[in-house]
Amino acid sequence: MRIMSGKERDNTSVLIQAGKISCDKKYIDVSDLCHVEFKIPYDEIIVAYIEDFDEEKRILYRPEIIDLTEETGGNLVLYDSQFCRFEIHLEQTGKKAGMIFKQIAVHAPYIFLSYQPWLDECDEEQFAEIKEMVSIMKDLPNESTAWSLYSFP
């Protein structure tokens, strides 16, 4: 088991072929297909969204929050406070990205949840603004951080 801190992951991209995944109170626990375990603390996650590939149209798409359900498939994408991108493939877990996403929203409602068309992942200035917003949301009392926009049917 390895707990990775932001200092170890400066501007990196990590692809995890998940064999198991669960959302605990303080972190996402992922084991890859080789049984290497990753614990990604919610405190370090800034952005989370789902990314999927449409086989018919041959395009990669990122559904907006209003289009997500617990049955939404795809891969989970996370960015941490050091701008490291985690792409977690869930096919082998038997779990849907929408269900994992919902659990993340429950445990860490201060995270910037969902992809927005105006979001430019490569814009470090914009990322710094989102990071500041998430920091402010973390400091609010728990009942204030429940974003009404992020509710599932």
How would you sum up this structure, described in words?
The protein is an alpha/beta fold and 153 residues long. The chain has one domain. The chain has 2 helices and 9 strands; from the N terminus they run ββββββββαβα. Strands 1, 2, 3, 4, 5, 6, 7, 8 and 9 form a 9-stranded mixed sheet that branches. It is globular and about 35 Å long.
Outline the biggest β-sheet.
9 strands, mixed
Distance between the termini: 35 Å
Proportion of helical residues: 10-25%
Structural class: alpha/beta
Counting DSSP E segments of at least 2 residues, the number of strands comes to 9
Shape: globular
How many helices? The count is 2
Order of helices and strands: EEEEEEEEHEH
Strand content: 25-35%
- List the domain count as a whole number: 1
Radius of gyration equals: 15 Å
Low-confidence stretches: 1-9, 144-153
Q: Estimate the mean pLDDT confidence.
A: 82
Give a short synopsis of this structure:
With 153 residues, the chain is an alpha/beta fold.
